[in-house]
Specification:
There is one protein chain. The protein is α+β, with helices and mostly antiparallel strands and 420 residues long. It folds into 4 domains: 7-83, no CATH class; 103-173, no CATH class; 176-248, no CATH class; 254-417, Alpha-Beta Complex (Lambda Exonuclease, Chain A). It contains 16 helices and 12 strands. It has helices spanning 7-19, 32-39, 47-63, 110-119, 126-133, 147-158, 163-166, 170-174, 178-186, 188-198, 222-230, 250-285, 289-303, 313-328, 374-387, 392-396; strands at residues 23-28, 69-75, 136-138, 141-144, 203-206, 234-239, 242-246, 332-340, 343-351, 359-367, 400-409, 412-417. The protein has a 5-stranded mixed sheet with strand order 8-9-10-11-12, with helices on both faces. The protein has a 3-stranded antiparallel sheet with strand order 5-7-6, with helices on one face. Strands 1-2 form a two-stranded parallel sheet. It is elongated and about 100 Å long.
């Protein structure tokens, strides 16, 4: 038994003997040590079980039959009921984000935030503060604000910051979110749905309010329970354990986009290496099938996490393709809008030296009005390469040309190889 397990009990006894009054015990984030043990248990297989046992003994010692204790309040995020942390304790009442009790005590209400802003003569900031920090749902009450972020925002404004500079993800940056980041980077079930959430759409998912940490990896839908309890998603009950989940505000949205981009950078580096290997094969051997397939997958997976408006989609796609090729190619020339035949080539890649390969890749990009036209538009792009003589410049340089047609609609892409 650890000598620290009686520490909280000893403190309550000392306070009682000093002041002759029973002690009120407040413990915030009591679940953080358990979360940390769960997140890093791969470093020590016994870490998680030992931490659960320690917290059980620590809390039982101070909460069970303690003659020096008036009452205790514990706040946390993750459910640990199934770990028997509080086994044997009497008169415990639990209030969760789904409970009809304490609904307005998880954060600030609309009236409270407005009164705060008005007191500091910042009421004109109300719409901005609402967009960034409002939107939480607790029990049956909607429109609850993140109190920490609101207070930090007001502090920054009083310090001289303008509205745009003061709108920052304060709570996200101060919270312990290692477990959430782990799910974003390694949970394929969550990764498939993040794009829909970041596009402002809702999802209907299963949520088990009693799910424990140790069950998350074994239960594919457990991630939704985790995100809802932690405040990274709103969850509104629909029927039979199903909830409608959605992003509450811009603060949380910014967190997801930042974390997704970190995850995508790791994934893209691997995909880019594979694609550049395939490009080498296309330029040296003339076999571009693998390259076109990987290019299509790369663009769809990467650009699905960017905001692309229809009017500037062609510019975004072309810039992305050029940037990707320019950063990843070695020994190749990457051109755009180069004059050839009766027009300008969108993108062309060819060796700086013919010793490196005898093929040039010429790409034409097309945007469509809907995703049903993607295949036909990609075929049309290839025909345009032939009809307008885009290959002529590179043929005169002594290269055999591989025409590739690329069509896109929003975030969907089709890449085709000549004759395929």
């Amino acid at each position: 038994m650890s000598p620290y397990e009686d520490a909280l009990f000893d403190i309550t006894e000392a306070l009682y003997r000093k002041y002759q009054k029973k002690v009120i015990l407040l413990i915030d984030e009591y679940d953080v040590p358990i979360e940390a043990a769960y997140t890093y248990q791969h470093k020590d297989p016994e870490y998680y079980e030992n931490m659960v046992a320690f917290m059980r003994n620590l809390l039982t010692a101070v909460l069970k039959d303690n003659p020096y204790l008036e009452f205790a309040i514990l706040t946390g995020v993750y459910r640990v009921a199934k770990e028997s942390i509080f086994s044997g304790l009497n008169n415990i009442q639990e209030y969760t984000i789904f409970s009809p009790y304490m609904q307005t005590y998880f954060g600030f209400t609309e009236d409270e935030v407005f009164e705060l802003l008005r007191y500091y003569e910042l009421e004109e900031d109300m719409d901005s503060v609402r967009d960034w920090y409002n939107g939480y749902v607790f029990g049956g009450v909607e429109g609850i604000y993140n109190p920490w972020s609101v207070i930090k925002y007001v502090h920054e404004r009083l310090g001289g910051a303008d509205v745009e500079s003061a709108l920052q993800p304060y709570w996200i940056n101060s919270s312990s979110n290692d477990l959430i980041i782990k799910q974003i980077e390694f949970n394929p079930y969550l990764q498939r749905e993040l794009d829909r959430l970041l596009s402002g759409k809702d999802l209907i998912v299963l949520i088990d309010p009693y799910l424990s940490l140790r069950e998350i990896d074994q239960n594919p839908s457990g991630v939704w329970t985790l995100l809802a309890h932690a405040g990274y998603l709103n969850a509104k009950f629909v029927h039979m354990g199903r909830y409608r989940v959605f992003l509450p505000n811009k603060e949380v949205e910014k967190f997801y986009k930042t974390r997704v981009m970190v995850w995508m950078e790791k994934k893209i580096k691997v995909a880019m290496m594979d694609m550049m290997s395939a490009l080498d094969e296309a330029i040296t051997k003339g076999n571009a099938r693998k390259f076109t397939k990987l290019l299509e997958e790369y663009l769809e997976n990467s650009l699905s996490y960017f905001d692309i408006g229809y009017d500037d989609a062609e510019r975004v796609y072309k810039a992305f393709v050029l940037g990707m090729l320019s950063l990843a190619t070695n020994g190749y020339v990457v051109e755009t809008e180069a004059e050839s035949g009766y027009g300008r080539v969108d993108v062309a890649v060819y060796p700086k030296d013919k010793k490196l390969g005898r093929y040039a890749v010429v790409m034409e990009l097309k945007k469509t009005m809907n995703d049903e036209e993607l295949g036909r538009a990609a075929d049309q792009a290839i025909r345009q390469i032939y009809e307008r003589g885009y290959a002529s410049k590179y043929e005169k340089m002594g290269f055999e040309v591989i025409p590739i047609g690329m069509a896109f609609y929003g975030k969907k892409v089709t890449v085709k190889l000549s004759g395929k």
